[in-house]
């Protein structure tokens, strides 16, 4: 795999964040255990219309999950926790 060859030549790890969990993310996660030097920092799959910010966010600031009240259904929280536990 061309990507794997490129990753092996890197010295530093690559941290990635997924926003929106559609087909690409599922495909990537299926191959993730074969990729070296990539770590998944965060997976976010939210309906932004239901999110409420707990503080003001600057334009270039990273939004952390603690900064947002998501009001997600119990099933979505359980699915998100399951995904998180698969990669950590």
Tell me what the structure shows.
The protein is α+β, with helices and mostly antiparallel strands and 88 residues long. It has one domain (2-87). The protein is built from 3 helices and 4 strands. It has helices spanning 2-8, 23-31, 74-87; strands at 14-19, 38-44, 52-53, 68-69. It has a two-stranded parallel ribbon. A two-stranded antiparallel ribbon has the order 3-4. Helix 2 (23-31) links the parallel strand 1 and strand 2 (38-44). The radius of gyration is 15 Å and the shape is globular. The chain starts with a helix and ends with a helix. The mean pLDDT is 77.
Q: Any key phrases for this structure?
A:
4 strands, two-stranded antiparallel sheet, alpha+beta, globular, 3 helices, 88 residues, two-stranded parallel sheet
Summary, kept brief:
This protein is of the alpha+beta class and 88 residues long.
Q: Structural class per helix/strand content?
A: alpha+beta
**What's the N-to-C terminus distance?**
24 Å
Q: Enumerate how many helices there are, as a single number.
A: 3
Overall pLDDT level: 77
Poorly predicted ranges: none
Q: Which radius of gyration do the C-alpha atoms yield? A: 15 Å
Describe the SSE topology:
Blueprint: H1 2-8, E1 14-19, H2 23-31, E2 38-44, E3 52-53, E4 68-69, H3 74-87
Parallel strand pairs: 1-2
Antiparallel strand pairs: 3-4
